[in-house]
Amino acid sequence: MEKQSKIYVAGHKGMVGSAICRNLKKKGFENLLLRTHAELDLTRQEDVERFFDSNRPEYVFLAAAKVGGIIANSIYRAEFIYENIALQTHVIDAAFRYGVRKLMFLGSSCIYPRMAPQPIAEEALLTGPLEETNEPYAIAKIAGMKMCEAYRAQYGCNFVSVMPTNLYGPNDNYDLETSHVLPALIRKMHLGKLLIAGDENGLRKDLNARPIKGVTGEYSYGEILKVLAEYGISRGQITLWGTGTPLREFLHADDMADATVFVMEHYDAPEGSNTHINIGSGKDLSIRELAQIVQKTLAYSGDIVWDTTKPDGTPRKLMSNARLAEMGWKPSVSLSEGIAGVYASYMALL
């Protein structure tokens, strides 16, 4: 990429997209094409084609997606497969037809089989059954990656795919129904901390900034307590799904963004299958251990209860980052440092 290149970052308001924008600007790339969902609905093919025809981007980071944690993936299965397949299909095809020089598609570690050998190498794709709880989302992401491979094989398009591990960072989603595990832990413990302190004003500030089921300062304190209890948040105790034993790997969004720009500048995928590149930290820990780190960072003094009637998801999901390491890239943000920074950014928005 040249410094003056026209670069379209799809999903620039999201956690990953905004991190990519920060990284590009830091490195001197200023000619960024950015559109909000209200300005450009990627699930509408005609709108996508009009955008590409009018703007002619040279490079595309496809970071837009409908994402969520285990609860959202279990409830909104139709939306997860339809919206993701629709938006990525329209962008990838338009990138081919309007002459984009290079496109990067951001996938997800959930594309790999539930019981894949650990750490998971790129070659593990499609070698076994997927995790059932997020199968629709995983199938959509696999379709996007295979679409990039097919367009490269048939048309010679320089379309590459990266598969990030579990990500966290500024601009994350803290909705208790649709968020991933780490932001959910942060918010549950923050709200639990306010309950222990009896800080009604603090609770209202949080709920006004990030409403839960429409809860705002207009609700009575009793109604607020009732809604929080539905999500396992009560005075002196929070309830978390599963056993806490599944192992997960986490990567800060700023590291993810740096890796994507690095790959965009240094990697042209060869023809064939499984040409995508994993992006991870190379380290994992249990959800229980993660909860303990968040508890210590937030100074949450309450109890943590595990609801073992709820699903755990995939037992372990550690990505092999050997390909990327061989290219010369490695992460720089430690998990404890990253969580502390994320909580600071969470509080700054209240």
Architecture overview:
- This protein is α/β, with parallel strands linked by helices and 350 residues long.
- Helix 2 runs parallel beside helix 4 and helix 6 packs across helix 10.
- The protein is 44% helix and 14% strand.
- The protein has a six-stranded parallel beta sheet, sandwiched between helices. A three-stranded mixed beta sheet has the order 7-8-13.
- The protein has helices at residues 15-26, 45-55, 70-75, 77-97, 135-155, 181-197, 200-209, 221-230, 253-266, 287-298, 322-327, 335-348; strands at 7-10, 32-33, 59-62, 102-106, 159-164, 166-168, 233-234, 237-241, 247-248, 250-252, 277-279, 285-286, 303-307, 316-317.
- It contains twelve helices and 14 strands.
- It is globular, with a radius of gyration of 20 Å.
What attributes characterize this protein structure?
350 residues, alpha/beta, six-stranded parallel β-sheet, three-stranded mixed β-sheet, 12 helices, globular
Question: Outline of this structure?
Answer:
It contains 12 helices and 14 strands. By secondary structure, the protein is an alpha/beta fold. It is globular, with a radius of gyration of 20 Å.
**Quick check: average pLDDT?**
94
**Low-pLDDT segments:** none
Shape: globular
**Rg (CA only):** 20 Å
Total E-strand runs? 14
Order of helices and strands: EHEHEHHEHEEHHHEEEEHEEHEEHH
Distance between the termini: 38 Å
Portion in strands: 5-15%
Structural class, by secondary structure, is: alpha/beta
Count of DSSP H/I helices: 12
Helix content: 40-55%
What spatial order of strands do you see in the largest sheet? 2-1-3-4-5-11
Query: Mind summarizing the main beta sheet?
Result: 6 strands, parallel
